[in-house]
Every structure is written in C-alpha cells, then in structure tokens.
Amino acid sequence: MGEMLLDAERSGSRRPIASADIHRVYYALVMAVACVFAQPAVAAPPTPVEEPGIELLQKVQSAARKLDYSGVYTYQQGATMVSSRIVHVVDGTGERERIEILDGAPREYVRHNETTQCLIPDRKLVVLERRRGDRFPALLLGAGETIPSHYAISTFPDVHRIAGRECTVIELTPKDDHRYGYRLCADTRTNLLLKVQTLDPANAIVDQVTFTNLQVGDKVAPEDLVSRWNIRDWKVVEADLVPVDLSAAGWRIPFPPGFRIMSQVSRPMQSQREVSQLLISDGLAAISIFIEAFKAPRDQPLSRGAMHKGAMNVFRTRIGDYWLTALGEVPAATLQSIAEHTEYVPLAEH
User: Fold this and answer.
1) Between 277 and 301, where is the model more confident?
2) Contacts of 269 (CB under 8 A, 6+ apart)
3) Largest CA distance in the chain
4) Which run of H or of E encompasses 60?
5) Hey, what's the torsion of the CAs at 131, 288, 274, 127, to 10 degrees?
6) Per-residue DSSP letters for 136-197?
7) pLDDT digit string (tens) for 16-62?
C-alpha cells in the first residue's frame, strides 16, 4: 500500500531527526529498493480462498492484472498531491505496463511481466529489476488468506462514483493496533480498484490514491505503452540481489501478528555498502527492515529515532555494530517495537 515513496521527507516523532538526516536515510533507502514507487513487494498470483471477503479482494487483484486499462490517478497526502499516468495491457506476451509520474522530476516505470525498468531522465539512468512489484490498482501481497484473521472486512450497499464509474465500498478494519485500516472503492462492473484510502485508528484519512479518469477495455491504446524517452545511450544498472537468511546469521527479529516473510536479500547501496533487506507483509501492509554495518569512525551516523510522512513511518536504531531501519505503512509504534525488540546473537566461531 506504500504509494509514492519518492519525493517525500520525514518529520520526527519520539526523538526528532535533523532535516539533513531525514533526507539522507530516506533517499538512500528509496534507491536501495531500486525506484520503488508503490508496493515494495514480490506478489504471488492469488490462490482462490473460500472466504467471501477475501474472494472479493482477490477479484480486485485479478482485475488489476488481467484487464486493459489506462488513466490518471492521484496520490494525496495532506496538502501534497502527485499525479501519475498508467497504461496496462495484457497481450500474447503477458502483462505490459507503463507508469509516468506527471509532477516533479520526470520518472517512468516500464514493466513487462516480471521485469521493471525505472527510468530516471535527469540522470540518464535505467534501474532494472527482475522481480514482480505490483502497484496501484493492484492490492494484495500474496494470496491474502490470513487477512480475515487481522482485519474485519465489510461491504456497503450504497453505490459511489469515482472517475465517472460506479463502485462498491469495501472497508478493512484492523483487529489490533499493529496496522492501519483501509477503505476501498471497486468498480461494480469490472472489480478494478478505483480508490484506496489509508485510515488511522480514529478513522481519519491518512493518505489516498484515486483515479481521476479511466478507460477500460478496447478504449486503451497499446501504443501508449511506449516511453517518450530515448534510452539508447543511458546507463543501465541492474539491482544485484543475493538471497540471505537473517535468522541463520544470528538476527532475532520479532514480527507483528499476521506478518510473514516475503523475501530476504542483500543489496548494494549507493555508498557501496551491502545492506540486508527483510520484507514482511500481512497481505495488505508491507514492512521493510534494513540492516547495515556501522563502520566507525569514518561514518557520519544518522540519528536514532522515528520519522514519518502520512501513512509511511520509519524507525531507526543501532544494535551493536549495526544500524537497523524499519520502514512501512504501519503505525510508528509497530516499527518501533520491531526495532527495539530485535536482537543480534552472533554465531559462535568454530
């Protein structure tokens, strides 16, 4: 659910963090996950689950993957609003998708099945990743079969309209304080997700993503999948991801109820450091946990503490000779609990 990781800054809670620190940790993490724009997750195809609420959510997920659609959607967080144009086409070669950020620095995401190119025109750079990372209007991370254990799923009879299309409201209310709630509006004809709002414990809207115009089916022009940028002479960088087992390496990281491992990898940062990333999800929310070595004395360490922007929170702490940073669209207390209860027990040398 983490829409628009880019172009945001973090403000402190608990212990304030200096503005320079905010930008350094934030942009370092964003580049580390290779231009993540929405859900930073490898999402498996939905597996049918015999549960009415999940069946509906899976139809929403399936529509995002199987339909042809194009349009403009906006991400809104307080006074900040960013628009993106999306084109999604399914043809004989599989799924093809192009997302163009319309505000701020130019940026595009061009995906063909599992391969995504992140185009950064001002640096003439293409960041390539060969794993699936679903973005709005996709919804689920995995099959979502455990979602009813941690969210109450409700639908409402009143018909709403988004971008000129009728839609059904679905609410997911968390059963504990480890996660946010969500209000969705799904197209009544196609099940395509038209709007998603993230809700805090007081049911206030923290952020939202919504289509402002939308075309579905044969009205979509496949030629719009072609980028307007000529990237022939651009530098291409492919994320070098190496599988790791943090538990076997001595890390004891507590997960909130319902969260499970999606991936564990080691990946290089821009600073030439290797950083381990653990990605966990409850089927809707995702949390990334980054672990990097603290290399004193030449390090200029970032402050310990919390940062947040809307639904996105970050909590950072030092554990022995390592920095641990937890990031995700969950309440700050959830990330703080993970960070402060994590232990590192180095393996005994033989």
Assistant:
1) 277
2) 28, 31, 32, 275, 292
3) 67
4) helix 52-66
5) 40
6) TT---SS--TTHHHHEEEEEEEEEEEETTEEEEEEEEEESSSSS-EEEEEEETTT--EEEEE
7) 223 333 344 444 444 444 354 333 344 444 444 446 688 999 999 99
